[in-house]
Amino acid sequence: MKRVLFLLASLAMLASCKEAPKKQQTSRERIYKTMTVEAADRTLTTGYAATISGCQTVEIRPQVSGMITDILINEGDFVSKGQVLFVIDQTPYKAAYEIAQANVKSAEAGLSTAQLILDSNKELFEQGVVSEFDLMTSRNDLVDAEARLALARAEEINATNNLSYTEVRSPLDGVASMIPYRVGALVSSSITTPLVTVSDDSEVYAYFSMAENTMLDLIQAYGSLKEAIREMPEVELLMSNGKKYPKKGRIDAVSGTISATTGAVSLRATFPNKSRLLRDGGSGKVVIPTILNNSIVIPQSATYELQEKIFVYKVIDGKAVSAAITVLPQNNGVEYIVESGLSVGDVIIAEGAGLVREGAIIKTEADIAAEEAAKKAAEQEAAKAAEQQSVSNNA
């Protein structure tokens, strides 16, 4: 009889072991991954479309009219300040210069003659040979000769300048643009298209716009616009090919006005460009970092949205309790920075929050592990008791 009872007990244990996986599977279906809210440091970035300009760009136009006789640079060349870029037909300007020089010499001779006549008339007037009228006339002739010489010298300077303008020089160090003119083209100071554009891109400016409310947030955070510019961290530049520019820059200028059409504020970031990788007229994206210390950071998978509000499920006494939170507009696409609604130490459901119901019993992986450990311990105790009973019966 005792052996029969022992066999029945063993069969019952085996049956319970076979049913355990079914119960375990049911429990696993109710497992939720949870996390304890902690403070962490994060750096968020925001990108702004930007246009790139050389620190100095000059459109070069001729100052005199004439036909281009020589082009001394190639398109895209690096040119130096003072370098001759174009030569305009010099023939008429050389002739004008020589005429101006001749007029100066003639005026100088006329002045010398007028001076001699005046000196002579002074002596003759003292001797009573000439009248006072003759003396005054000679003085006026001297003044007229002085004026003629001044005019001739001014014309000489003008002719000298015009002749020098036939050699069109670069006003700065930089890179030349494409050249829309060729030798033989007739040009003047009134042309609408410049001969060439020279851009000094040893340093470049990236111009971009920021929403007014974002700028106000920065001013309030730093105390003033000047302080915000001074304290802003270095910014990065994503080039048009999507790659990061190797040098960092700084925001050094902010527009004093807000655009009435866009409601945005214009800013300028300056980047070093000794390698000439960036060119005037290019485009990119200025990336501004925001450093956040000791912030509450949670995964976006731990949230769900309802009526344009963001919620999480806190685990309180083993049950799911929804809680509304506010987050920073900036995020990295994976996490949220929580401004309010959560505290360090809170336990929340970390994944699948949108599938949880209010008040649901939350079994965590730790809970299931504890239950399985307890069940295994009970089975071991039962097996041990059965073995002891069998030994006792055999005795």
Overview in brief:
The protein has six helices and 20 strands. It has 395 residues and is α+β, with helices and mostly antiparallel strands.
Low-confidence stretches: 1-9, 14-29
How many helices? 6
Task: Tell me about the largest β-sheet.
Answer: 12 strands, antiparallel
Task: Give the rounded overall mean pLDDT.
Answer: 86
Q: Strand-and-helix sequence, N→C?
A: HEEEEEEHHEEEEHHEEEEEEEEEEH
Binned, the helix content reads 25-40%
Roughly how many Å apart are the termini? Answer: 15 Å
Structural class: alpha+beta
Main attributes of the structure:
single chain; 395 residues; alpha+beta; twelve-stranded antiparallel beta sheet; 6 helices; disordered N terminus
Q: How is this fold's topology laid out?
A:
Elements: H1 2-28, E1 31-32, E2 34-36, E3 39-60, E4 66-71, E5 78-79, E6 84-88, H2 91-127, H3 132-165, E7 167-169, E8 174-176, E9 186-187, E10 196-211, H4 212-222, H5 225-231, E11 236-239, E12 250-254, E13 264-272, E14 283-299, E15 304-306, E16 309-316, E17 319-327, E18 335-340, E19 347-349, E20 363-364, H6 365-394
